[in-house]
Write a structure and sequence with these properties.
- Keywords: ATP-binding, Ion transport, Membrane, Nucleotide-binding, Transmembrane, Transmembrane helix, Transport.
- It holds the Pfam family ABC_membrane.
- Among the domains are: 153 residues, ABC transporter transmembrane region fold; 111 residues.
- The chain is built from eleven helices and no strands.
- It is elongated and about 150 Å long.
Length: 391
């Protein structure tokens, strides 16, 4: 059909060259010219189209072929253009303006594996200081085991002279008996204080230097990312990774090295001392402690998950305040000051709620631990006095 129309226009005489007839008054000149032009154009289209159809048709079947050809053209164009269609879905409903923020506990992903090789690359330059800190921590653990034994010797000496009575006490023998354990106890206190200073000082240096290096590498890795990375991650979250997360790593590193080594050494030393004092009580503790450790490990796993949610919610609240303050002109222009205050209040209340739940969990964990340990001590005392049997 388009070909027929174009061929007709090529063979027609331009309308502008045809006479317009007798001129009318000036007021009706444009109206008459427009009507004449439209009428002649319409007649010419009908006449040229009919002539072309008669020349190219062989009966009425050619008209049907023309119609079918147009239909086929439409179907072909639609089929070839099917990839131009776009499927759109409505975005998930979100509350307020927190569209790109991660909801605590809702982020996906598999288990994050700790990169020990990367950790060793940060720790290797401080290996000498780390060995010194470990030895100092082990020395502190040794003194923590020996000091109660010396205190027991001092208490036994005092109780012996207390039973003898004030009149029968020989001052010279009392001083002689108390001199040796007292000086040894005083020396152990001084040594414990000195080694405590050494390992805390060394661990502080190692932790601070490692944290500074991690911050520098992390900032360099963030700053070279593509712009798409900054579109997907909030500025507040990135700042928290540079500050809060590195601080948590530093604190955890120092606690694991200091308290972990001391606790491990004290566990071994205390177990050996307990076997030397009472093998029966040590055997009971050896059976009951693993069961308690398994139960406390399950509680600790729940507390770690709750701690992660609480930290994520705190970062969410920080991001809200950071964005509001960074875009204060936009907030003022839209008169959204009180809306931002209300949003920040909701996020901080949620963070406080999660922190309170974490505090309750830690309190339950500590109370159960103390109850278990005190129960073991009380049970051992009852067994030693034959108040209860071993079963």
């Amino acid at each position: 059909m388009l070909k027929l129309l174009l061929s007709g226009y090529r063979t027609c005489q331009p309308v502008c060259r045809q006479p317009l007839g007798q001129l009318r008054p000036r007021g009706k000149l444009l109206t008459t010219a427009r009507n004449t032009f439209n009428q002649q154009t319409r007649n010419h289209l009908v006449r040229s189209g009919a002539q072309q159809a008669v020349r190219t048709s062989r009966g009425g079947s050619k008209i049907v072929q023309l119609l079918l050809g147009g239909t086929a053209l439409t179907v072909t164009v639609g089929y070839n253009c099917r990839k131009w269609f776009v499927h759109c879905e409505a975005a998930a409903a979100t509350s307020g303006r927190l569209v790109g923020h991660k909801t605590p506990g809702a982020e996906g992903g598999g288990t994050v594996r700790f990169d020990w090789g990367k950790f060793w690359s940060y720790l290797r330059p401080h290996l000498v200081k780390l060995v010194g800190a470990v030895l100092a921590a082990l020395a502190v653990a040794y003194f923590n085991i020996q000091i109660p034994n010396l205190l027991g010797v001092v208490v036994n000496t005092l109780s012996k002279y207390a039973r003898a009575g004030m009149k029968d006490i020989d001052t010279g023998s009392f001083v002689e008996d108390m001199k040796a354990p007292s000086f040894r106890l005083f020396g152990m206190y001084l040594a414990q204080a000195g080694f405590t200073f050494v390992y805390i000082f060394l661990l502080s240096q190692i932790g601070e230097q490692m944290a500074a290096k991690i911050r520098q590498d992390l900032f360099r890795q963030i700053i070279i990312q593509d712009l798409e990375f900054f579109d997907e991650n909030r500025t507040g979250e990135l700042v928290n990774r540079l500050t809060a997360d590195v601080q948590d790593f530093k604190s955890s590193f120092k606690q694991c090295i200091s308290q972990g080594l001391r606790s491990f050494a004290q566990l071994i030393g205390g177990g050996v001392s307990l076997f030397l004092i009472s093998p029966q009580l040590a055997s009971i503790a050896l059976v009951s402690v693993p069961a308690a450790v398994a139960m406390f490990s399950f509680l600790g796993k729940s507390l770690r998950a709750l701690s992660k949610r609480s930290q994520a919610q705190s970062e969410r609240a920080t991001s809200v305040s950071e964005e509001a303050l960074s875009n204060i002109r936009t907030v003022r222009a839209s008169a959204s000051e009180y809306a931002e205050v209300e949003l920040f209040r909701q996020e901080t209340d949620r963070a406080a709620e999660l922190s309170e739940q974490l505090g309750v969990g830690i309190a339950v964990f500590q109370s159960l631990t103390n109850l278990f340990l005190n129960g073991m001590v009380l049970g051992g005392h009852f067994m030693s006095t034959s108040s209860i049997s071993a079963g």
